[in-house]
Amino acid sequence: MPLVPHLPADEPDRDRSAPDVGEIVEDILDGGDDGPAPSPA
Fold first, then answer.
1. CA distance 24 to 19
2. How many Cα atoms sit within 13 Å of 40 on the Cβ side?
3. Cα 34 to the center of its chain, rounded Å
4. Shortest CA distance to 11 belongs to which of 1, 23, 21, 2?
């Protein structure tokens, strides 16, 4: 099986392809203050 960077049907496998995505999404949902850590205010 070829290594694909993004598989729409293999979304559950994306965790090991891009584990940082979760952190990035959390930062954006937190406000996206362009920082390494989420800001409560």
1. 9
2. 0
3. 15
4. 21
Three state DSSP letters for the chain? CCCCCCCCCCHHHHHHHCCHHHHHHHHHHHCCCCCCCCCCC
Q: How do the pLDDT tens digits run along the chain, 41 residues long? A: 566 565 566 555 555 555 577 777 777 777 655 556 655 55
> At 36, phi and psi to the nearest 5?
-70, -25
Neighbouring residues of 19: CB distance < 8 A, sequence distance ≥ 6? none
